[in-house]
Write a structure and sequence with these properties.
By secondary structure, this protein is of the alpha+beta class. The chain has 3 domains: 141 residues, Creatine Amidinohydrolase, Chain A, domain 1 (3-Layer(aba) Sandwich); 137 residues, Creatinase/prolidase N-terminal domain (Creatine Amidinohydrolase, Chain A, domain 1), CATH 3.40.350; 287 residues, Creatinase/methionine aminopeptidase superfamily (Creatine Amidinohydrolase), CATH 3.90.230. The protein has 19 helices and 28 strands. It is globular, with a radius of gyration of 25 Å.
């Protein structure tokens, strides 16, 4: 267990000092990030839970952590239920839990920098007529109690070359300024880390596996901009790169600048989904006119330009060569014994590091043997590490951050001989993957409309998977990017030319194995017989799909043609890039299948 009761005691003492009877602990930072720096791992410090999604609440006598189904097993292994209860966030929502365990006069604190306005409004309604008061704190009590809290990263901020971005920062902010003019806004507040990185063509190492700087920004309709970043991260090279249209200010001045904008009566574009509640409060209390709309960077960032798409193609070919060498290594060495999840992940990183312009992983590698593969977002550790055993399935989900693109690939392989059930489930997942890859759709179609395409082969026998089919991916940025998504209840934002997404149906049998086949795809125009604007997907990821797990008789003619064509392209694209031994293996691994 990772739960430390001393941390809970220290937090409760601080709550008492702040005249609070409880505190809400989200897993995010002041930028509403999915992945956060070490300094913002407050939920882990309080509860011991180290998953990538969840929330917590601490009262004077009780505490609880709220997670989704992906983390049921992980939370049980990390969080001591004697100190912190475990709940599924839908079965027992956080706010209901607080109401059930609080009484009239209780004061429940929250940090407005770690919440959105929508959350504030929802929480206020939940506590109406209960006598429970929701209190926005000025100082986060966890930060006060966490005596050895890490400092935010001081990694330098650097410019990202236009040969990779395809567009200068000045051009991007010119487009943003035009949108602000249309909306009647004098300026936009940009707080999402990847939006700031994209708008200024800058990168850093402030978040593990995501090359973004900790910074806020304000972009004016006159194309001027202010970047708020710790001055210790700023170099002369960065100043030269940003140019004279960008004013640099200390990160600590951000909210003061918002207050000054409000005092001058400016109209400010704010995003309720990405700007934290303190941004809204500061602006509105100072007198700003708030224009609610979407972060103006989100959509153009998602629609990759031709340079970014070509960069993604190039990065995936290099990455595919690394994956192929790794899969060859697994096939040769796993049956001998002595390979486990940790050593396999280390070997993959060793192989991947040989590729040009690789800067980092794009996320923590999911190296999952046997039953651990059934945990969708499993993260290997010394405590959970399993060996790769004969006649078992091994799932590896990994990615690289290359200067020209971000990769994310999952391959599932059999060590030894699969059971008929394993082959059936793998083939159904493959059929769903192929169906989505081949889908053509009219302009205006959202990813939500396409999700069932990938699930149908599993639905045919009463099975499903509990994650989205596809997420957006950035360009040397976040491996999870919006607004594009393919999911049952995903966004209704239409898929557009240049968007990059994953195609990753799966199947998970608890306690036994997991299967996922993931490639990245990009949206491009397709031909139409009647002139209607149509789109299709171009495949970006190239690496063998395990032939030993495919039931050829379970594929129809179109599916068989697809997998054989895909493998032919894998060999053609990667054959000259892999080492000699892998080349021989690759030829066999991509040989045509026949009935």
């Amino acid at each position: 267990m990772a739960t430390n009761p001393n941390h809970l005691a220290a937090l409760r003492a601080e709550l008492k000092r702040q005249d609070l009877t409880g505190f809400i602990v989200p897993l995010t930072d002041e930028h509403m990030s999915e992945y956060v720096g070490d300094y913002a791992q407050r939920l882990a410090w309080v509860t011991g839970f180290t998953g990538s999604a969840g929330n917590g609440a601490v009262l004077m006598e009780k505490a609880a952590v709220f997670i989704d189904g992906r983390y049921t097993i992980q939370v049980a292994s990390e969080v001591d239920a004697a100190y912190v209860e475990h709940h599924h966030f839908e079965a027992y929502p956080l706010l209901k839990w607080i109401k059930d365990h609080s009484q009239t006069g209780d004061r429940i604190g929250y940090d407005p920098e770690l919440t959105t306005v929508a959350w504030e409004e929802n929480a206020a309604k939940a506590f109406e007529n209960t006598g429970i008061k929701l209190v926005a704190v000025n100082t986060n009590p966890i930060d006060a109690a966490w005596t050895d809290q890490p400092e935010p990263s001081l990694a330098p901020v650097y410019g990202h070359d236009q040969k990779y971005t395809g567009k200068s920062a000045d051009e991007k902010r010119l487009d943003i300024a035009a949108e602000l003019e249309k909306s009647g806004a004098d300026a936009a507040v940009i707080t999402m880390l990847d939006s700031v990185a994209w708008a200024f063509n800058i990168r850093s190492q402030d978040v593990l596996n995501t090359p973004v700087p900790h910074a806020f920004a304000i972009i004016d309709k006159d194309e001027q901009a202010t970047l708020f970043v710790d001055e210790r991260k700023v170099t002369n090279e960065l100043r030269m790169f940003l140019g004279n249209k960008v004013r640099l200010e200390p990160r600590t001045e951000f909210y003061k600048e918002l207050a000054a904008m409000g005092a001058s009566g400016k109209s400010v574009l704010v995003d309720e989904a990405s700007n934290n509640a303190r941004v809204f409060k500061t602006l509105s209390e100072a007198g700003a006119k708030l224009i609610k709309g979407q972060d103006p960077c989100i959509l153009p960032k998602a629609k990759k330009n031709p340079t970014e798409v070509q960069g993604a193609r190039d990065a995936h070919i290099r990455d595919g060569a690394a994956i192929s060498e790794f899969l060859h290594w697994i096939e040769v060495n796993a049956p001998k014994g002595g390979i486990d999840e940790l050593s396999a992940a280390a070997k993959l990183w060793e192989i991947r590091q040989k590729r040009d312009i690789l800067k980092d992983r794009s996320f923590d590698t999911i190296s999952a043997a046997g039953p651990n593969g059934a945990l969708c977002h499993y993260r290997v550790s010394e405590e959970t590490n399993l060996p790769l055993l004969m006649d078992s399935i091994y799932l590896c989900d990994s990615g690289g951050q290359y200067l020209d693109g971000t990769t994310d690939i999952t391959r599932t392989v059999i060590i030894g001989t699969p059971t008929p059930e394993m082959k059936d489930r793998f083939t159904r997942v493959l059929r769903g993957h192929i169906a989505l890859a081949q889908t053509r759709f009219p302009k205006g179609t959202s990813g939500m409309a396409l999700d069932a395409t990938a699930r149908r082969p599993l639905w045919e026998i009463g099975l499903d998977y509990d994650h989205g089919t596809g997420h957006g991916v950035g360009s040397f940025l976040a491996v999870h990017e919006g607004p594009q998504r393919i999911a049952k209840l995903g966004t209704i934002v239409p898929l557009e030319d240049g968007m990059i997404l994953s195609n990753e149906p799966g199947y998970y049998k608890e306690g036994e194995y997991g299967i996922r086949i993931e490639n990245l795809i990009t949206v491009r125009p397709a031909d139409s017989a009647e002139g209607r604007d149509m789109f299709e997907f171009e495949n970006l990821t190239w690496a063998p799909i395990d032939r030993n797990l495919i039931d050829v008789n379970g594929l129809n003619d179109s599916e068989l043609t697809w997998i054989n064509s895909y493998h032919a392209q894998v060999y053609q694209k990667l054959g000259s890039l892999v080492d000699t031994e892998t080349h021989t293996w690759l030829k066999a691994a991509t040989a045509p299948l026949s009935r």
